[in-house]
Amino acid sequence: VAEQNRLVKTFSVFRGQEPSAETFRTVGNAIAEQCIGQRLAGVICFDIVFSEFLDVIGEKLGNSGIPLLVANGIPQKTPVCHGVYSDMKQGGELLFDYLYNQLHHERFALVGHYNWVINTRQILQAFLDKASATGIPQDHILLRVSDGVPNYHDLEEELLDFKPTAVWTNSDFSALSIITSLTNRGYKVPDKFSVI
Question: What is the largest CA-CA distance in the chain?
Fold first, then answer.
């Protein structure tokens, strides 16, 4: 990006571990230092609700004159950041409309974990309600969402047996793990499977 004040940074920080409060503080501090060092005009965090993280990054950025915006499905106000509420119910409905009406998928796998993506239940419920109202049979939807990070090797076998045309997951890490597992087995993504 040509102008430094338009620089957008994406940080992906919690990979396959159950983060502690100290981890949140450490990561928040490191991200804040990078943002300050690059003289960013502002920072947007999506779906982060952990106060240990927000307090550290918000205070450090605020002291440097860099605004922090948090966008998620929980109305939230803290003294260190601005909040934007996202309607996850509508998001789940739009996800179904896109996959079914625009891409013409009829077999769906919904995969992920609840741990860090707090809006997953809202998205999934809206998706399932819309699918039911549209007449999609329940046996055309594979739902595999757990409290922990899924075992992608076992999930890969189940996906291949189920044969969905669209796989939705609630995190980039999950999507990349699924894509890697499928491509390692010789399947083409997105030709054979659409992974969203």
Answer: 54
Q: Rounded to an integer, what distance in angstroms lies between the CA atom of residue 180 and that of residue 183?
A: 5
Residue given tokens 């991200």 in the structure block: 31
What is the dihedral angle through the alpha carbons of 162, 140, 16, 40, rounded to the nearest 10 degrees?
A: 130
pTM beyond 0.85: the answer is no
pLDDT tens-digit map of 32-91: 888 888 888 888 776 665 677 778 888 888 889 888 877 665 555 555 566 666 677 888
Helices in the chain by DSSP H: which ranges?
A: 21-37, 51-63, 88-97, 120-134, 152-162, 172-184
Query: Exposure of 20 by Cβ count < 10 A (0-12 exposed, 13-18 middle, 19+ buried)?
Result: exposed
